[in-house]
Design goal:
The protein is of the alpha+beta class. Among the domains are: 149 residues, Beta-Lactamase (2-Layer Sandwich); 107 residues, PAS domain (Beta-Lactamase), CATH 3.30.450.20. The chain contains ten helices and ten strands. A hairpin with a 4-residue loop joins strand 1 and strand 2. It is rod-shaped.
Length: 433
């Protein structure tokens, strides 16, 4: 039971020897069964055919010998023929009937009736117990049927010989099967032993022991396989050594490169932190600056402006992001602003004064400094610094008005003085008159 359960187990892995043994055992078993079944049956058929031929020959000879006696109703000659036939020990019964069906002579008629010697459908047959062959031959005299001869031949001797032959063949089949099993086991061992040893060697090599080699014990295909396998392992060991050397070299290079990368990462992290700190510093400076600061792209659209710009103009950056700065400019100053913008895009810093419109409609006068923004050597926009000079411009205008009025006053005073002098002279002249 343990063997059967092992055979049907999923974990069972049959070896080549097991497979060869199973295949050849099955083949030898089939051959043995074929020998045991085919040859006895063939011998039985041949022997049966021989007995049938013998029975028919005896019946025909008796019918030929007895036909004149039956025709002339010569009982003495019929008895002589029967007496001569009864000397055959295999003869079981003889029955002679005339054309009317009357029994003329008989030998062991009771046994003939037990053997059912008269069968309408087939007068040549074997009895139900298989021990008697029944045959019928017409008795002819001058080609005229004068009766029928029934004869039964014993098959006991035939059956005994068949049993003996079957036993002999069974013994021979068993010997062939046992010898075949031994041969298969021996051949399987001879063939698979080197393969089994090679499999064990392969398993040790798979575990990392490259010093193992297959044993070459013959010059046949298995020996050639072992030789080729050893060459492959030699090449594998050489390649493995080279790979180990390369691996050690790569490990050293990786360690060195990892160290360099770590240093580069640390330096880059410090640089990024410094950059973030610098960006934060300058962003704070820009956001806290008293000046208006804004940036434009190459199309003149806002990309940024600081809180001071929002406070001075009243506009929010969220509302103006991506919109043109020209909408801020007083129409009369627009051409100047566009000219300055183009020069700045050409890489030339500029300074100009411009008037812009606040959200509430008031006008701011700005003093603006512009500079190009470079990225990868190309101008990608402009940065603009604007200072509110509206009050200064108003004071300057008031100063100009004051100076103008003062000049007019001095001129008027001089004219009045001169006029007074003329009037004084005229008045004196009048007095003289």
């Amino acid at each position: 039971m343990a063997l059967i359960s092992k055979l049907f187990s999923k974990d069972w892995k049959p070896t080549i020897r097991t497979k060869l043994t199973a295949i050849f055992t099955l083949l030898i078993g089939v051959i043995s069964v074929f020998i045991f079944t085919f040859f006895p049956a063939r011998l039985e058929n041949q022997a049966t055919e021989a007995v049938i031929a013998k029975a028919q020959t005896i019946a025909e000879m008796m019918a030929y010998s007895i036909s004149p006696a039956l025709f002339f109703e010569d009982s003495e000659n019929i008895e002589n023929v029967f007496k001569s036939a009864k000397q055959n020990k295999d003869l079981v019964y003889i029955v002679l009937v005339d054309n009317s069906g009357k029994t003329v002579a008989a030998f062991n008629k009771d046994q003939a009736e037990q053997a059912n010697f008269v069968r309408a459908e087939n007068n040549n047959h074997i009895s139900e117990d298989g021990m008697i062959y029944n045959t019928m031959t017409p008795v002819l005299h001058n080609n005229y049927k004068v009766g029928e001869l029934y004869l039964g031949l014993s098959l006991k001797k035939l059956r005994a010989e068949i049993r003996k032959s079957r036993t002999t063949i069974a013994f021979v089949s068993l010997i062939i099967f046992i010898f075949g099993m031994i041969s298969v086991f021996g051949i399987g061992t001879v063939i698979t032993r080197p393969l089994s040893q090679m499999a064990k060697t392969v398993e040790r090599i798979s575990r990392g022991d490259l010093t193992q080699r297959a044993v070459v014990c013959s010059r046949d295909e298995v020996g050639q396989l072992a030789t080729s396998f050893n060459r492959m392992v030699d090449h594998l060991e050489s390649t493995y050594c080279e790979l180990e050397n390369v691996n050690r070299s790569l490990e050293k290079r990786v360690k060195d490169r990892t160290k360099e990368l770590r240093q580069e990462i640390n330096e880059r992290r410090r640089a990024e932190e410094a950059l973030r700190a610098s960006e934060q510093k300058y962003r704070t400076m820009i956001e806290q600056s008293n000046d208006m600061i804004w940036t434009l792209d190459t199309e003149g659209n806002f990309t940024y402006f600081n809180k001071r710009t929002e406070e001075f103009s009243g506009h929010r950056f969220e509302d103006w992001q991506g919109k043109p700065f020209a909408a801020f400019i007083v129409e009369k100053d627009l051409s100047l602003a566009m000219e300055v913008f183009q020069k700045t895009l050409n890489g030339e810093p500029q300074h100009y004064e411009v008037r812009i419109k606040k959200l509430d409609g008031d006008i701011l006068i700005l003093s603006v400094n512009t500079a190009p923004i470079f990225k990868a050597g190309a101008v990608v926009g402009t940065v603009n610094f604007g200072r509110d000079i509206t009050e200064r411009k108003q004071l300057e205008e008031q100063l100009r008005q004051s100076q103008k009025m003062e000049a007019i006053g001095r001129l008027a005073g001089g004219v009045a003085h001169d006029f007074n002098n003329i009037l004084t002279g005229i008045q004196g002249y009048v007095d003289l008159i």
